[in-house]
Structures are given as structure tokens and as C-alpha cells.
Amino acid sequence: MMRVTLRQLQTFEAVARLKSFSGAADEMHVTQPTVSKQIKLLHEEVGLPLLEQIGKKVFLTEAGHELYATCIDWLDSWGRFEQNIANLKGMKQGRLRISTVTTAKYFMPRILGPFCAEYPGVDIALEVLNRDRLLERLSRNEDDLYIMGVPPEGLDVESEPFMENPLVVLASTAHPMARRKNIALADLANEPFLVREHGSGTRLTVERVFHERNTPLKIRMELGSNEAIKQAVAGGLGLALLSQSTLNLDPSQKDIAILDVQGFPILRSWYVVRPKNKQASVVANVFRDFLRAHVELLEPRR
Ligand code: PGA
């Protein structure tokens, strides 16, 4: 029977994943000699080399690959065990991983202060990514909760709407349409649009909106962030369809007008999504309840 410790396995997992001793040391908040020592002890216990270092690069040997796969399974089961014990004790503490689409970054972080004040034992990690990247995390089961505007179809998830998410048409205040009332959507077909990158939920929605209404979408430019789009709109480069959430608390908003287009704003919702096959931790449920009960914290104070 080999005698290895949890710490050694955690260290090996970090080195193997990051392919770096110094990266693992940084992540684990220890020195590099400590990491090397843990790996050396593990190596002696296993009796075969686990890692090869060529220059600054770290490679896994065959035994290293075996151990890495075992470590992932084992650390995952251990994490579930710790969470189950916390659940059995009914503890409102532990780690909570949330991923949110870029467009929700205008409001999601605001709830963290009040939430952490009420539940100081909860340690939150918040990832901000576009919709496609978020769905990749979802398929790898990396987080407890996901915040998005367009829940995935065909995946085994539970999606619950928690707040309105109106989609609006934006133009520079200097644009002639900024003063017009009741603009027909067909009139927008002649206008150049600024759109988000492929993989963004906003991009998906904009393409759907134009497609469903049989209106051609004239794309002037693709920009990789809502911020860049708003600045370009304010500068008169074109129009854009964005979530109204992107206007929260933004001082440049005075250069941007919301156009009065027929059928707009398109009323949608923000959703909190969780994988059905994942047993929800107590903290994930506590956070969902908190979100539902404190939606007013997310709404902009204008
Ligand atoms: P996005 O997602 O930030 O990737 O555009 C927005 C959404 O899901 O509505």
C-alpha cells in the first residue's frame, strides 16, 4: 500500500495541470522548493518517474498520466464528500462557483457584497465570459450556477428567470433617428450595425431578431465587447442592439440614445441556470434564493 498524502496529490495535480512548478507554487501559495519536495516524496512512493522537465517545460510520463487521471477523479470525489458533509451539517459555507455572461457583469457583482455580508463563510469565485465559453464550462460541469440571457437548448439544465432583460436599439444622440418616434424595423435595414463576436449571446439574439422579422442585418463591424460597441455607437459609427443592462451606471450614456423602434424593447429575462444532474449544494440554493429575494439590488439606481 502506497503512503501518499492529500497535499502531495493536490500538488501533483496543480503541477500536471499548469505544466509548471512555479505556477503550482503560486497557485498554492507555497514556495517552489515546497512543491518540489512534495513531488519528490510522491515520486519515491510511486517508484516511477512522474514528470520530466525539459528546459522550463514539464511533461507527464506514462505513470504521470495515470496518476493525473486518478488525482482528478479522487479530488472530485473528495470535493463532493466535503460538500455533502457541509450539506448534512446544513452549513451555509463553502465554495460557490458562478459563471456569468459578459453582459451580466453590469449587475451581478453588485449582489456579492450584500450576499457575502450575510454569509461570510461562503467563498465565491465569479467567472465572466461570453455565452459560448460559459456553455463550455457548463458542459465540463465546472460551476454551481450560470447566469445568462439565452439558456441552452438540448442540455439537461434547469433555467429560472429572475429579472427582466430588455433588448434595446442604440444610436448616437446625434443620429437623425434619435429624435424620431415609432420607427419601423424595416427602416433599420439601411443602417450599419455594430455587433458582438460570434459566440456571444447578444450576437445570437440580434441575428435571431432580424431573421425572425425578415429584415436584413447590415453589419458594419464586429467588436468583442459591449463597452467597445457603446463607445463606437456614441462616436457615430453605427447602431447596435444591446441589453439595456449594458447602460447601467455608465457616464458615456449621455451620448447614446435608445431609439423608439416598433416592437422594442424586446422583453426577455435573465436566467439562473444549473445542471440538473449536479446535486445542488446548500450554498448554491442559498444564493439562488438570495438572488430571487434581492433583485432590487441589481437594478440600476438612475
Ligand atoms: P453575451 O451573452 O454577454 O455572451 O453576449 C448575453 C446573453 O446571454 O444574453
Note the topology.
Layout: H1 6-18, H2 21-28, H3 32-46, E1 51-54, E2 57-60, H4 62-88, E3 94-101, H5 108-118, E4 122-129, H6 131-139, E5 145-148, E6 157-164, E7 167-172, H7 185-188, E8 193-195, H8 201-212, E9 219-222, H9 226-234, E10 240-243, E11 256-258, E12 269-275, H10 282-293
Written overview of the protein:
The protein is of the alpha/beta class and 302 residues long. It has 3 domains: 6-74, Winged helix-like DNA-binding domain superfamily/Winged helix DNA-binding domain (Arc Repressor Mutant, subunit A); 77-162 and 269-298, Periplasmic binding protein-like II (D-Maltodextrin-Binding Protein, domain 2), CATH 3.40.190; 165-268, D-Maltodextrin-Binding Protein, domain 2, CATH 3.40.190. Helices cover 40% and strands 21% of the residues. It has 10 helices and 12 strands. It has helices spanning 6-18, 21-28, 32-46, 62-88, 108-118, 131-139, 185-188, 201-212, 226-234, 282-293, and strands at residues 51-54, 57-60, 94-101, 122-129, 145-148, 157-164, 167-172, 193-195, 219-222, 240-243, 256-258, 269-275. The strands form 4 sheets. Strands 4-3-5-12-6 form a 5-stranded mixed β-sheet. A 3-stranded antiparallel β-sheet has the order 10-7-11, with helices on one face. A two-stranded antiparallel sheet has the order 1-2. Helix 5 links the parallel strand 3 (94-101) and strand 4 (122-129). Helix 2 crosses helix 3 (32-46). The longest helix has 27 residues, at 62-88. It is elongated. The chain starts with 5 loop residues before the first helix and ends in a 9-residue tail after the last helix. 2-phosphoglycolic acid is lined by residues 101-103, 130-131, 148-150, 196, 200-202.
